[in-house]
Amino acid sequence: MGPGCRRGDIGFVETTSQMADIAPSTGLAPATETLLKHYRAQVMTRRVYSILVALGVLVALFLAMNYANAANSGKFFDRLPYMFDFVKNFLPRDPLEIFRAMFDLPSPYFDGSAKYDYTSERVYITVNLYIPHLIYQLIITVNIAIVSTIIGGTLAFCLCFFAATNLVGAGAVRWFVRRVMEVLRAFPEIVIAGMLTAILSIGPIAAIVAVSLHTIGALGKLFFEVVENADMKPDEGLKSVGATWLERVRYAIVPQVLPNFVSYGLLRMEINVRASTIIGAVGGGGIGEVFRLSIGRDYAAQTYAIIIMLLVTIIVIDQFSGWLRRRLVGNQGFDIARGSV
Amino acid sequence: MTAISSAERARLEKKFPDVFKRSFFKQYGLPLGIGLTLAYLVFCWFFFNVGPALQNGKWDRASIYVQDWYSWRAQPRLRFGDDGVVTAQWSSRGQYPEGANIPWLTPHDDGSMTAVFDGEANRLDISTTGVDVYIDGVAWPVTITADGAYAPENAPPAIEQDRDKVWVHYGFAGQAEIRDNQVAVQRRFFGWANFLYDPRSVLWGNDLFSSIGLAFSGDQVVEGKPNIQLIWEQWLGNQAWQHADILVKLFQTLVMAFVGTLLATLIAFPLAFFAARNITQNRPTNWLMKRFFDFIRSVDMLIWALFFTRGFGPGPIPGIAAIFLTDTGALGKVYAEALENVDDKQREGMKSVGAHPVSVNRYGVVPQVLPVFVSQSLYFWESNTRSATVIGAVGAGGIGLKLLETMGTNSDWDKVAYMVLLILFVVFLFDNISTAIRQRLIVGPGQAAH
After folding, report:
1. More confident residue, B138 or A338
2. Given this model, what pLDDT does residue A44 score?
3. Closest CA to B48 of A142, A307, A309
4. A143 — contact with chain B (CB < 8 Å)?
5. What is the CATH number of domain B243-448?
6. Is position A38 within any domain?
7. What pTM did the predictor assign?
8. Domain range holding A137?
């Protein structure tokens, strides 16, 4: 547990100095003195190494930032004033415009241009009842996320048992399934989306397939780790009465791991909402694409409307799934599962 | 084994009511849930118009795109000259240098030309008056007149008459379209064409092994330049594959992830101390800091990326800014949670000897949380290497944008495959590096839970 514990072990007297553990001290027995000397030497070595590593990282950071600045089309300090100007000028004509854009209400500034034309893209359900365009796109994006989580989660559920050491003895099967999951996880989503866009033209199917495939890889890894940590006693009990492999999985493993699976699935859904927004921007349709277009065309009111809607949606979904997860598995550190993103 | 009596049965039912009389939800929950999910999927099938979209898909092109990942096409047009000579015409993207000796395409002295597809038994003998199509050794003469090309009667299905032109299909090896004035040949080969050197290079025609041989041989291909340098320059400068450009873009993506995560770590580290309730005992500060983390975390990475692309122009800076902002929020939240879970004994020990508050945190808190912090940051670095690709595609530059541009041409799928392989390689490499560092950092099982 670091130097904190060892300091106590050798009866070292604490001073208020910053370099407490290598400060001089007197009045110790010779044996303790030697011990102290060695301890100090080790602490010094450690510190030198730590400082060297920290310096190395900082130098790398500096070089990388320099490189990024040189590679950018506008230099950071040259563009900074433009950035502030952009933020300052990128404002709707009055705050209410944002809500008019959000709910497709006619704008008083309408001059025939598309910038203030909020009403023409309403999605009518009945003659009078309509869904505002932006909200409809948001619904598409959220649905893409939910569908991909369901499809990806189901396939990951089927695959994960074949990757778990405690259920599958055959090394080759496990190795193969795990590699498949790894490739699915690391495969760039935009390539799948782009390939399908080339075949099916722009639309949500490309986004669904891309996000689903990634979900299989990401959830599959988390799932099989849960399965590997499952209690094997129920499994042994079923084995002793001659149950088949499928029955053992169904009645011994699944009931144990299901709450964790659902919890991971919900966490994945939060991530997928963000992922489907981004994939939408590169050709998957939905709110991401509308956002990319509106910020590119300087439609301030629409842009802010989308930012607010996305922020609210993401916070609501995060809170809801967090609440559900806490009910399912208690307060475990699941927020940290981002490593599998 | 006998059936249990009714009294025993009643006793068991009374003793374990939660097994025999389960609530409605427990009894029918699973089938109900599955049914609802299926109903939802059916609804989405219609909501997203999946059926029509699949029907209208260009599935014939799909197989070509997939084949393009691992094979390449040579597409010369064999033009019929007025003097009876057949000449091969290549587009600007042709894979052979001017005047190269192409093994499968031989011109003859009488002006005709032979295109070999799958062995001598499957070939085209092309002259300006007619094309002899050989399929499995049998010749089928296609006659060419002034107004079109016509296949013979009862030709096999591989030869297809399409109005006034004739299609010949040789499966994977390729196809040919015979018209009145030209034969458009499409010959497919396994592998990537000119991956090492483009046709304009002096080294064109060398494969990997002969390149290695050249690198160690004494004779200089170009006077005054070591072969190994020449090979390196010619490979990087390959016009068809743009190795230099792709590697630079990949490096930009890695820089985005690295700088973004590291900056986020450096900023989130001090801020997390203000957000942790046990360290800064000031409720409003904790609350404000946590809400600040929540806010910048919840604004989508896409929004930050597009926003900064507008401000700074395309390049790594918007990518860094997007990763930096989202991850400052996410890391700050995770760090604050780790800080709130520290063991208070070490802090108390430091306080009891009258240490300065900074020392209390330096020696009482940091040694406990540092491994967790570093391992979290490594996790984020790992995942950001992946997300930097996507962020790049929306305008932040790097390999993501390059991928999107390459896919937009719809013909360079081999280059897409190459970039995907590079990305997979880099992601696996970084995964393994970060896993190795993390395993060295975290020893105790108690901390491994994080």
Report:
1. B138
2. 93
3. A142
4. yes
5. 1.10.3720.10
6. yes
7. 0.84
8. 130-340
